[in-house]
Every structure is written in C-alpha cells, then in structure tokens.
Amino acid sequence: MTWYVIETLSPDAATVCFAGDKAVEWQSVSRLGGKLGVDLDSVVATVRASGEREDSESEVRGTATRIIAEPALGPDGVVQAVSVWVGAAGDEPTTAPKLGPLYVDLAEYKLVQTLECFMLSANSPADFSADRDPTLFLRKVIRFDKIPEFLQMAANPTEGSKFSCFMNIHHEAGHLMYWLGLARYDHDGKKIRALGQDITEFSAPEVHPAALASVDDGSLSRKSGALLIGFPGDQTQEPVLNYWMTPPPVRLRLNSAEKAGHHLHPDDVAAVWDVQRRLVDAEKTTQLSVFVRIAAGDDDDWVPTQTTFSSYPSETVGPAVLVARVRVLEDSEVAAMNAEAVLSP
Asked: Tens of pLDDT along 212-269?
C-alpha cells in the first residue's frame, strides 16, 4: 500500500496533499477515507490531539488492516501534517514521506524551522538553528516561481489564505531536490505555517525556462547535450551531475544523473571547481569551457568532452548550480589537443 500526507497547517483545516507518488493538494480527507474504508478524520484528529505516532489494526471491509499515522511537528510542537499508511495486517510500510515543517514569524519576519526541515537539504545537523533569516533559506532555492505570491501572502495575510508550489532545492551534497511546498495563514495572526516535502524520488526538478532557452536539444548524431551540475557546500567533494535538460549524448546514455557514483574523472575535478570559482564574480553571460572526462556506465569508461559552463539563470542560486553544455570529442580532436599541449612552451 502507500503513504498519504495530510496537511494540518491551520486549526480548522486538514486536507490531503500527497498520495502515493503524486501531489494532490487540498483534497478531502473524508473522501479519501471513504475510498480506503477508514475513518481518516478520526485518525488525523487523534494524532493532532496527542502529537504521537499511532499504529493499530482493525478490520476494513472484511480484511485485517494495519493503519499507521505519524505526526510532523512544527517548531512549537503543533502538528502540521500527518502521514498515514494503510496496508494489510502484518505488512511493513515503505519509507515514510520526507517532511519539513516550519513557519514564518510575521512579527519578526523570520523563518522558524524544525531540525527535520533543515536536514532535508543538509549533510549534518551541526549548523542547525531554529531561527533562520529568509535570505539564507532562499540561497538553497534554485527555482521558486511563485515567490511573489508567497511574499504577498506574508505581507497581507487574510483569513483562510493558503499557498502551494513546487520548488527546486540545492542540497549541500550538490544534488538537486524537488519539493512540494504548502502554507496556510494561522488564525492567531502571528504565523504562516508551512510544510516542505521532498518528492525527488517521484518527480524530477523542473528546469528554469531561461536555462532551457539557452541550450539546443543536441545534434542529430547525439554528440552533445546539456545538464545541471551541482557543487557541494564544503567545496571539496566531487561536483554532482544532476539532471539532463536534453537527451544525453549517445556515448553517455548509461550515465544516469540519478545513479550514485563518480561521474567526473578524478584528474578533471580540480579543473571543474576552478571554472566554478571563476564564474563566482563573472558576468552572468560569461561562459567558460574545459576538457572533462565523464563516466559512461562504468567508471573505467571515460568519455572525453568539451564542456562549457555558465551560470544558472536565477538570482538566488549563485554558483551552487551551473549549466553545463557537453560535447563529446572525437578521437582526432583529443589527439590534436594532446599534440598542442606537448608543443606548448
């Protein structure tokens, strides 16, 4: 069976926002409960009142059924979401949804987050702080098209106002994440409660239209392509090849950006980091090219490429993510480059 995420961001609200592998924002809990044969309204109410995980078994339509309900507590202990799993008695659930509760303090205009929210995009809890300046949070946001709507909601909160969006988030380890974001105005007049959910395993991040507009879809012979490369926050680890914005070149077709492992030749990592550092203070339109070998499938199959790097078209990203246009080199081109290097003084 599957997990369902039910947001409880305001005292009189409870709606289904995620079911199985897709977002279904603001759907009826009662309707879902009817389909499942479970009184979900009571399950959610119980968890909201106790703030504790529930794990019970009951008979549903003649079948022994296990029901698990896990709360996601906000920074002040208020239940901001409930994840519910319904399956056969004796079955074990799959991994629970990855949720990050937080709220906006409207009096001080700051974000207050939970450790769970912080760790969705962090490597270590060492730098965790509950209070966070919004600009620091936005530094990890690669794409957030609805930010004007959210700022308007924060500036003029009204009874019953709510907000939903999808965001690309840069993880400290370098890879990109895709989040579902939800928010509601809390009736106490002091908070906007929000929930982030990492749904990367179900949906690939959406690329900024300006980034797509600046690349072609590769040659007919599929010797070129474009992708996003993320740079780990510690500035020492290997950059991460994220998502292809075009079909990858034929020789790199086995190099799935979602596959774990090393994708850059160890001898070329320093050159890629050097390009990234040079682009930090460069004009947004600057492009820098470098010779890079990329793994195709196995790490011992290195494909020589001429890779051109440029900034990602978002003011908040900075150098954390770059656009990389990859062109696979012919053996004759590599030989010529090697000969030129030998002849150079």
From this structure: 655 555 444 568 888 888 888 777 788 988 777 777 888 886 544 444 445 899 999 9
Q: Which residue has the tokens 């011992």?
A: 300
Nearest alpha carbon to residue 73 among 112, 109, 108, 40: 112
Domain carrying residue 246: 209-339
Specify whether 108 is located in the same domain as 61: no
Same domain? For 156 and 110 the reply is: yes
Q: How far is CA 327 from CA 26, 41, 76, 227, 290, in A?
A: 44, 55, 51, 11, 11
Last residue of a domain, one of 88, 121, 145: 88
3-class state of residue 7 by DSSP: strand
Tokens of 167: 């965001």
Largest CA distance in the chain: 83
Write out pLDDT tens, residues 13-40. Answer: 899 999 999 999 899 999 999 999 999 9
How large is the average pLDDT for residues 279-283? 86
Kindly state whether residues 213 and 293 are assigned to the same domain. yes
DSSP 8-state secondary structure symbol assigned to residue 89: T
Average pLDDT score over residue span 138-166 = 83
Computed over its alpha carbons, how large is the radius of gyration of the chain? Answer: 23
pLDDT exceeds cutoff 80 at 1: no
Side-chain half-sphere exposure of 86, counting CA atoms within 13 A: 21
In CATH, what number is assigned to the domain containing residue 146?
3.30.450.20
Q: Report in angstroms the alpha-carbon separations of 218 from 256, 257, 293, 328.
A: 17, 17, 18, 11
Residue 55 to residue 190: CA distance in whole angstroms: 34
Question: In terms of Cα–Cα distance, which of 49, 111, 106, 105 is closest to 77?
Answer: 49
DSSP 8-state class, residue 247: P
- Is position 204 within any domain? no
pLDDT above 70: residue 301: yes
pLDDT for the residue 147: 77
262 within some domain: yes
Kindly state whether residues 246 and 334 are assigned to the same domain.
Answer: yes
The answer to whether residues 81 and 116 belong to one domain is: no
User: What pLDDT shows up at residue 213?
Assistant: 56
Same domain, 213 and 322: yes
